[in-house]
From TrEMBL:
Keywords: ATP-binding, Nucleotide-binding, Repeat, Sugar transport, Transport. The keyword Repeat applies. It comes from the Bacteria. GO terms for molecular function: ATP binding; ATP hydrolysis activity. This is ABC transporter. The lineage of its organism: Bacteria, Pseudomonadati, Pseudomonadota, Alphaproteobacteria, Hyphomicrobiales. The keyword Nucleotide-binding applies. PANTHER family: CARBOHYDRATE TRANSPORT ATP-BINDING PROTEIN MG119-RELATED, GALACTOFURANOSE TRANSPORTER ATP-BINDING PROTEIN YTFR. Residues 16-256, 263-488 form the ABC transporter domain. InterPro entries: AAA+_ATPase, ABC_carbohydrate_import_ATPase, ABC_transporter-like_ATP-bd, ABC_transporter-like_CS, P-loop_NTPase. Coiled coil: none annotated. Pfam families: ABC_tran. Belongs to the ABC transporter superfamily.
Length: 492
């Protein structure tokens, strides 16, 4: 039964309705009787640990997957009902995925033509340019993205902004329900704020949003209702005001000990040793130290990590005895081998130690994979499954395990927790602290201020240069933001 609206009139009919939906992939039951409705004006926070079924659920909602059981129905603009992928498109269902789907060799405007089939014939480029420019201006005022830019030349944050703008852009069938899967995972705080403001405005005008994020503060800020998923089922659903953050974590189920929340900076003086790296631009680190790179996204942090990593890798000697190992944030471009299995992706950097007489020791390889599957909680029934069979967060776990299982004394991390659930983050923080205690050094770039504040020392970047070096109690959100804008103010 639909509740009445605050004015006393009946609530609008749902845009999409799922009834007892089930989805089976071989022996894996991804959805197990999911029922939900989404109505105009709602922003539904869909929450759950990696592998809970969120990605499968939204792919059923947008028509990308046909369920093996149950029904999915859509309401069209004329009040009639529809089903299937064509029905989803006609109903204005749009998706913005965590794994960016833009074609890097096309321009921003040309990418809009892929989902918008009405962009054809004479003048389609002009219409595409106007639509994407208007959407970018509405959502991200002050952006520096031109419709004629080639996507491959954009930063990860800019590509995510284009993907989001594409989801909301004007089309022959206007957007009614936009699914946002980890939409702020590559955005800095100021750009994320612009998106959250737009989501609230879009829903206030009668649109609807499914908001999937592991940043619980954002969910509480924009969601009108929160649905909690676990093991392919919705185990709790209520208005956002009915949850607290701790209550929401409890509803999802704990996967890590409370001790993992402890700050990484604990006992820093005891574990930090001699300097092990120093670059010409001023970046430095000591053994056992966790060094954070902060600042607005796209201001040189990732490039600094890349330059250092390339300077310490690439030779035959460095391949057999690595000096540094890398954890990619943009896993689609820099991390996973999409045609390989989970196991092969995890053990990739360990092949020299697993090889005897030019042959890979398959038993040792399987043992290594099983060990890290258990330690970091990779959700799969078979490590020989394709890497793309995993959710985005579980793919990131594989990359994290690949790095930590190596013998490299320095770990370079480019926003490694992007799209990883809160429980896995806690486990990762605990592993980082444990590895640092044994003398390992970490260079950690993150778009999440909370993560940067757990480092021993932080270098803040602005316009490709280090604008501040913070230590100890200096490391806080206020100082990081001040340093992020400092150089811009001086230049004004």
């Amino acid at each position: 039964m639909k509740p009445d609206s605050p004015s006393g009139s009946p609530a609008p009919a749902p845009l999409v309705s799922l009834s007892d939906v089930r989805m089976q992939f071989g022996a894996v039951r991804a959805l197990d009787g999911v029922s939900l409705t989404i109505s105009p004006g709602e922003c539904v926070g869909l929450i759950g640990h990696n592998g809970a079924g969120k990605s499968t659920a939204v792919n059923v909602i947008n028509g990308g997957l046909t369920p093996t059981g149950g029904t999915v129905g859509y309401r069209l603009a004329d009040g009639s009902s529809a089903s299937g992928a064509a029905g989803a498109r006609a109903a204005g269902i749009r998706s913005v995925f965590q794994e960016l789907s833009l074609c890097p060799n096309l321009t921003v405007a040309e990418n809009l033509r892929i989902p918008q089939h009405d962009l054809k014939g004479w003048g389609w480029r002009r219409r595409a340019t106007r639509r994407i420019a208007q959407a970018l201006d509405q959502i991200f005022p002050g952006h520096r993205i031109e419709p004629g830019m080639v996507v491959g030349d954009l930063t990860l944050a800019e590509r995510q902004m284009v993907e989001i703008a594409t989801g909301f852009a004007e089309a022959s069938a206007p957007a009614k329900l936009v699914i946002l899967d980890e939409p702020t995972s590559s955005l800095d705080a100021s750009i994320a704020r612009q998106l959250l403001d737009h989501v609230r405005g879009f829903c206030a005008r009668g649109g609807a949003v499914i908001f999937i994020s592991h940043m619980l503060g954002e969910v509480f800020e924009v969601a009108t209702r929160i649905d909690v998923m676990k093991d392919g089922r919705i185990i709790d659903s209520r208005p956002t005001s009915g949850f607290t953050q701790q209550g929401l974590i409890d509803a999802m189920g704990h996967v890590a000990s409370q001790e993992a929340v402890t700050a990484v900076r604990e006992n820093a003086e005891e574990r930090i040793g001699e300097e092990v790296l120093a670059t010409s631009e001023g970046l430095s680190a000591r053994s056992g130290e966790i060094v954070g790179l902060a600042g607005l996204a796209g201001h040189g942090q990732a490039e600094a990590l890349s330059r250092f990593f390339m300077s310490r890798s690439g030779t035959m000697r460095q391949a057999s005895r690595p000096e540094v190992v890398f954890v990619a944030g943009d896993r689609g471009r820099d991390g996973v081998m999409p045609l390989w299995s989970i196991l092969k992706n995890l053990t990739l950097t360990h092949l020299p130690s697993l090889t005897q007489k030019s042959l890979v020791d398959s038993i040792a390889e399987k043992t290594l994979g099983a060990d890290w599957k258990a330690r970091i909680g990779i959700r799969t029934g078979d490590m020989n499954n394709p890497i793309l069979s995993l959710s985005g967060g579980n793919q990131q776990k594989v990359l994290f395990a690949r790095a930590l299982a190596s013998t490299a004394p320095i770990v370079v991390m480019d926003d490694p927790m992007r799209g990883v659930d809160v429980g896995t983050k806690r486990e990762a923080y605990e592993m980082i602290r444990r590895e640092a205690a044994s003398g390992r050094t970490f260079l950690w770039y993150s778009t999440e201020t909370e993560e940067v504040c757990q480092c021993d020392r932080v270098f803040v970047y602005r316009n490709g240069e280090i604008s501040a070096e913070l230590t100890g109690d200096q490391i806080n959100e206020e100082n990081i933001l001040a340093a992020s804008f400092e150089m811009q103010e001086h230049a004004a």
